[in-house]
Amino acid sequence: MTSHVLPTYARVDLAFERGEGAWLISTDGERYLDFTCGVAVNALGHAHPYLVAALTAQAQKAWHVSNLYRIPEGERLAERLCEASFADTVFFTNSGAEAMECAIKMARKYQSANGKPERFRIITFEGAFHGRTLATLAAGGQKKYLEGFGPPVDGFDQLPFGDLDAVKRAIGPATGAILIEPVQGEGGVRVAPLPFLRALRQLCDQHGLLLLFDEVQTGIGRTGDLFAYERTGITPDVMAIAKALGGGFPVGACLATTEASKGMTAGTHGSTFGGNPLAMAVGNAVLDVVLKPGFLDRVRHSALLLKQRLAELKDRHASVIAEVRGEGLLIGLRAVPPAGELVDELRAEKMITVAAGDNVVRLLPPLIVSEDEIAEAVARIDRACTRLARAHEFARKQGAG
Asked: Is pLDDT above 80 for 88?
C-alpha cells in the first residue's frame, strides 16, 4: 500500500480504529493490551468518558481564539498547576519539545536579564532526549538524531549521566543552567540518583544557575507522584511537561518560578495554538481525575504490584530479562537479546510496548490499569520470554553443531 506520509517512522503494519481503557482494537478487530499508551501520553487510557465529555462540551463553544485575549480555562489550568507544584507561572505549548524550547529560552533570558548574557550554556546529560527541534536535539546531543542537519545549535555541554565531578568541572563563566530528566525515558528508563539531583540543586544555588527539569514523560502521575521532582526533596526552577497533561490531546507546558521567568516579558515568546480552549478543557479534566483523592495511591499500588511480578519474571527468564528498572508506571526491562525482538514477541502476544536506549523495553501502561490487566500483561510477557528463550537456545545449538 502506497503512503503519502513522510517516511520518518519505521511504522509497524498495524492500525487501530478505537480504544477502551487499557485496550486498543485494531482495524481487523483484534484486541491489544496497550502498555505504550502513545509513549506515556494516554495516561487515563483510551476514550476516558470524563475526558471525552470535557472535549465535546468545549468543542461546541470555542476551539481557538488566540493568545491576544484571555483564555479562562487556560488561566484556571495554570493556577491549578502552580498550586500543585513549585511554580508561580505557566506557558502553554502544543508539545513537549516546545515546552523544552521555552525552558531553554527562559534560562538564557534569565541570565541576560541579570546582566550576564554570556551565560547561555546549559549542561545536559548523555542519553537524554529533549525533543526534535534543532535546539532540543542539540540539548540531547544524540548523534543519530543530529546527523545531516548541519552544525548543532551551540550552547549545550553533554556530560556522563550521574557524574557529579564532571558537572563541577564543566561549570564555567558561560554556564547558565543545568538540564536533566529525573528519569531518562528514551535513554533507557535510567533513574537519576537522588544524591546526584540534590547536589545539582546545591551547585545551581552556589553558582547562580537555573535548574531545569524535563518531566515531559514523568509528569502528571507517571512515577506515582504528580511530578517526579516531588520524591527528590528539591525543586527545579523551570520544568517542562506535556504527554499525560492532555491525556492524548496535544498540549505541553513550561512551569517556572517568578524569579526564573522574570526576563520573559511581553513579546519575548509566543505560540499560535498554545493554550487553546480545547487543550485547556482537556488539561483541566485530566487534573480533575489525577488529583482526585486516592488516585495517585492507586498508581503507586499498581506500580509496586507490576514491579514485583516483573521481578519474578526476571528470575524465571534470566536469559531474556537482565534488569527491571524505573519509577512508578515508567518501567524498563533491560533485555539480554536485542530489545526489538522482545517488542516483536510481545506484539505477537497482542501486547504493545516500545523500545528505548540501553537495550530496554519500556512498559508504560495507563495509570488506570487494573490488577487483572497487570496479571494479563505479566502472563503475556511470560509467554513471549519463553518463546524468545527457546528460539535463542535453538539458534545457539544450531551454531554449536
From this structure: yes
Say which DSSP state 231 is in.
Answer: G
Give me the sign of the Cα torsion angle 229, 248, 91, 133. positive
Quick one: which of 397, 394, 371, 388 has its CA closest to 316?
Answer: 388
The Cα 248–Cα 282 span in angstroms is 9
Pair (252, 151) in one structural domain: yes
CATH number for the domain that contains residue 209: 3.40.640.10
For 271-330, how does the pLDDT look when each residue is reduced to its tens digit (9 = 90+)? 999 999 999 999 999 999 999 999 999 999 999 999 999 999 999 999 999 999 999 999
Contact call for residues 196 and 211 (beta carbons, < 8 A): no
Yes or no: say if 129 and 142 are a contact pair by the CB < 8 Å rule. yes
Contacts of 191 (CB under 8 A, 6+ apart): 182, 183, 184, 325, 326, 327
Domain count for the chain: 2
Which percentage of the chain shows pLDDT scores above 90? 96
Residue 107 lies in a domain: yes
**Does a structural domain hold residue 384?**
no
Q: Which domain holds residue 313?
A: 293-325
Asked if residue 299 and residue 248 are part of one domain, the reply reads no
- DSSP assignment string, 80-109: HHHHTSS-SEEEEESSHHHHHHHHHHHHHH
Predicted local distance difference test score (pLDDT) of residue 398: 77
**Separation of alpha carbons 167 and 174, rounded Å:** 14
Residue 30 has pLDDT above 80, yes or no: yes
Q: How many CB atoms lie within 10 A of CB 271?
A: 19
Nearest to 228 by CA among 45, 83, 86: 86
Predicted confidence at residue 393, as pLDDT, reads 80
pLDDT band at 177 (very low <50, low <70, confident <90, very high): very high
Is residue 310 situated within a structural domain? yes
**Beta bridge partner(s), residue 122:** 156, 177
